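How a chain folds remains the central question behind the approach discussed here. For one protein, we set the task of working out the structure tokens from the amino acid sequence alone. The sequence in question and its structure tokens are set out directly beneath this paragraph.

_____
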Amino acid sequence: MGFQMASVSEMESTEQNDIRFMKARAELGLNSFGLQLEEFPQNTGEDAYQEHSHAKDGQDEVYLCLSGTGEIQVDDQDWTQFGPGTFIKVDPESTRKFRTEQGMQLLAISAPQDSGYQPQSWTEKGDPSSSSTSGQQQEEQGDEQEQSS
């Protein structure tokens, strides 16, 4: 089949200190990057989310807050508040932990820094062509230029 779909309400999950971790990567059959949905109940304290880094496996980790508000602490620095629509990127060597009073839902995406990913130029900040042409059109134009060379 050319695609996979999975409903959050039907995903296999695990719980740690009342935080629910939905196994989105496994449900979708992904092997190129990590993907999980994390649901934090109200009044999740800083000790509930296991502080960790990815220094050993070299994974960049990005979190997207889908709902609620929370705070993150990176490398024992001050707590930083965030809310829905906020992306947070944490370097592999940095430790991170979360807390929330309201409850929140985070989408966690991870991949090793040496995964070989090569971004398309139109996805780069400041690329003037990205505002007028879609990514697929950019890719097609690049293919046409390569073929004519």
Q: What stands out?
A: DSSP finds two helices and nine strands in the chain. The mean pLDDT is 88.
